[in-house]
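Can you give me the bound-state structure? Components:
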Amino acid sequence: MTVGIASYGSYVPYRRLKRAAIGQVLGIPAGKGERAVASFDEDSVSMAVEAARDALRGLDARAVPPAAPARDVRTLLFATTTPPYAEKLNAALVGAAARLPLEIRAADLTGSPRVGLTALLQAADAARANGGSALVAIADCRVAAPEGKAEQAGGDAGVAFVVGEDPIAEIVGSASVTREFLDIWRAPGERFAHAWEERFALTQAYGPLLGAAVKRVLEQAQCAPSNLAKVILDAPNPRAADELARGAKLAPEQLADPLALTVGQTGAAHAPLVLASVLAAAKPGDLILVASAGDGADALLLKVTPRAARYTQPRSVGRLIESKGDVAYGRYLKWREILPTEPPRRPDPDRPAAPPMLRSETWKFGFVGTQCTACGTPQLPPQRICITCGQRDRMEPYPFADRPAKVATFTLDRLAYSLNPPTVNVVVDFAGGGRFLGEMTDCEPDKVQIGDEVEMTFRRMHSAGGVHNYFWKCRPRR
Amino acid sequence: MASNGIRDRVAIVGMGCTPFGEHWDKGPDDLLIDAAYQAYESAGVAPNDVDAYWLGTMGQLSGLTLSVPLKIDYKPVTHVENFCATGSEALRQACYAVASGAYDLAMAIGVEKLKDSGYSGLVVSSPANDGTLGNMSAPASFSLLAPAYFKKYGLDPAKGKEVLARIAWKNHRNGAKNPRAQFRKEVTMEAILNSPKVADPLGVMDCSGVADGSAAAIVCRAEDAPKYTPHPIFIKALSFVAGPGEGPLAQDYDFTTFREVVASAKDAYAQAGVTDPRTEISMAEVHDCFTPTELVLCEDLGFSPRGAAWRDVMNGFFDLDGGLPVNPDGGLKSFGHPIGASGLRMMYEMWLQLRGEAGPRQIENPTLGLTHNLGGAPGRCVSFVSIVGR
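Here's the bound-state model for the whole set.
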């Protein structure tokens, strides 16, 4: 059975931190360009949800006829080095927000920046073994200590793939190696990772291991390096990748843009995100090699199929890179709670309660409202008695998450508790009916206008008592 | 089925009202005792003469909040709560109780002690929930009215802001004449316009303050009123409406009106036989929690045609010497808003004005007064309207 990438989605958060801004505040040399930064209301789960929704939209768009989408997802894998919960299945949150069915196998994969690619391989195995398709959602929110290299080099992003039959990119071969060595480590409860001195892992681990995995997969497929249309080599120390590329005599045009100047090194999401950016421009017949190192290495060889010519990615990596707004370094430090700040003279937010969350699961996590079957009025949150015609219990579920909306009125709340004041509160009206009163995020508060076009996004509203409260906000269309 | 009202069947025969403000030296018990005893003295009755009590206050669970400090001698005390209209709700219940004949003399009393919380602004705790309810502050909720109103009626933001400031300016001007007000100083338009932003476009001077206070009224059937005072005031209408919460649900709500207020005003005018409020109502105390609220209320209550209240604000129609003085006592703007007390504080101004006791704020020969008290947020609220007269 031929399996591969049936659709994909990506997510680069709206905010950018200019490396020069870090250098300026800390009085240290700064790298070029900027890194993508998860906003104060984002984490690896919310970014994975963005990418997963995008991948599922891509899958829906492929379906013929479009009314019968091939959403036969049986496996869900969430990969990250920065899971919001150490205990409690993060993938379950992704599944709820992406409105996946109950009958799926789901797991979190974590521990190494190469885990994104590992998860993609696991998803392929799962699709082969279980039939149907597997959704792999990968995201990372890379937080590193101020003044360190990783703070500047890192980036935050998400990416997702639906892996199954009739792919747009077929998996031709794969190879994995795993070896125990100490380079980067972080114990539970620690904010920042520790690192060994660089030369050791570069010469003894990343270089040789990445090389071994790449060699094996190319041999397996009897493919010469010169036949590769694009190559993505990813290692915690990018010099390992550079040296391998030189050793293999790869031409510059074969090497994918590692997005270092625009997004940064996004941990588990990195190699898969670059893969998503490469797929957007790939042509049928292209061979793509992607390899990622970290306590070993995984390598994967993909062949782009004729189906790719008819596939359109709903929201490309390139478009997401262009859609951006700066964040000041001080505000960024506050968002990541690296810089303690004066609390507002307002009560702390409450932890959400488990039974109400379960009762409203499709609403809270899936943003599914109701539509009155008597008069047709869509409404949210879900109602039993119709606001328009007053009929009781004539409702059916009505998803709002993918519907566009427009701002009806708004305010900037400077009193409510927020890590990112002012809170932009908006009333938005959905195309086709339905109204939502909530927050707008990823916007410039002084630019908000009545009539602005917005779309919905899954966010972490706040955390209290160790519970992350996820719900939906709107944002200007990206 | 009808809302029949109790026009002229119930009289207010005594009232009390503490000064509103930062009572660092008084707890809620002290404020209740002060307001209750003022009301007893005003009606010339002893505490034991009152047969039943309605207590309006926020987040308390029983009538013991009143009966224990007052040492009420085994009589019914009902605790009522209806958001920011809680004080008015207490009065409405007390009036119906005496109108029904169940009791001869009843007290409605409201209190709030907000300054002890340690937080800025009003703090309300919500029951266990799914975390989707949002975290919007009160000024933010009400400021949603401003851009919607400006856009609908073609006011540019600067002009709109000036209209809002004119409302605050007027209310502070009235409050400066009121010894019970929290803020007793006139404030310049410039200071209001330039006050720090709280919920754009609202600045801190567009918001009512946070205060402690208590107010009380003693009511009886109209025919008994002469036993207590030669100058009772009479209930012409009491209306209370709770809405279905269309604002955040239905696209046809445009945030330039409170449908609950329109409904309660219509009901109250029918009960009182008022057909042209702009000319028949002598004065009004309305719920000016935030300046855009008062702007919209003046249209919802029928004081100005739709889209025209801002002109009436600017031309002084609602000033103390205007055609229809609104918030002659200074309003929530000058008094702050101790939730349970505010509705009764509004009525206290009617009591003074209709009895000719309002001093420098006295309106010439008022006949009908209106109080309006609101709780909730635009599109999802409760509204109370009373009409009282001599």
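A couple of observations. Chain B has two domains: 10-117+212-232, 138-208+235-389. The mean pLDDT of chain B is 96.
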